[in-house]
Amino acid sequence: MPRILIRTSLKDADLQDDFEDKVAQKISEVLEYPLELVYINVSTGNRMINNGKKTPMVFVDIESVNRFNERVNDDYTKVFIPFFASLLSMPTNRIVVKYHDAKVPDFGVVRQAPEFKHAEYYIALKE
């Protein structure tokens, strides 16, 4: 289950109305998880500095189960940095992506059929 935290100095009005939808779709596609498992939090208007200046920038933290390690992270970077640069109309040197590898028990979440189809990704709750 990917959890994405996006912090940016951009204002809310600077983001496309479907920003979260596009990010969720890309994460689902690249990390090969069903869209219903992608969780996104966007925080805009943060006070940030990069390269010693208060220029627009973004931090993207991506946490997921069994997807990240030193062999594959560079490949993900080659996908995610250009994606966010295009989506935010921002130079690539103002985007920082941090990968966090997690285990299934690190997440506490309740999902049940029929509304959620991918039960294999969840730990069952015992009554």
UniProtKB/TrEMBL annotation:
InterPro entries: Macrophage_inhib_fac, Tautomerase/MIF_sf. SUPFAM superfamilies: Tautomerase/MIF (SSF55331). It is an enzyme of class 4 (lyase). Its EC number is 4.1.1.84. GO terms for cellular component: cytoplasm; extracellular space. Keywords: Acetylation, Cytoplasm, Lyase, Melanin biosynthesis. Its main location: cytoplasm. Gene3D superfamilies: Macrophage Migration Inhibitory Factor. GO terms for biological process: melanin biosynthetic process. GO terms for molecular function: D-dopachrome decarboxylase activity; phenylpyruvate tautomerase activity. It comes from the Eukaryota. It is found in: Cytoplasm. The keyword Ubl conjugation does not apply. Belongs to the MIF family. Tautomerization of D-dopachrome with decarboxylation to give 5,6-dihydroxyindole (DHI). Homotrimer. This is D-dopachrome decarboxylase. It comes from Mytilus galloprovincialis (Mediterranean mussel).
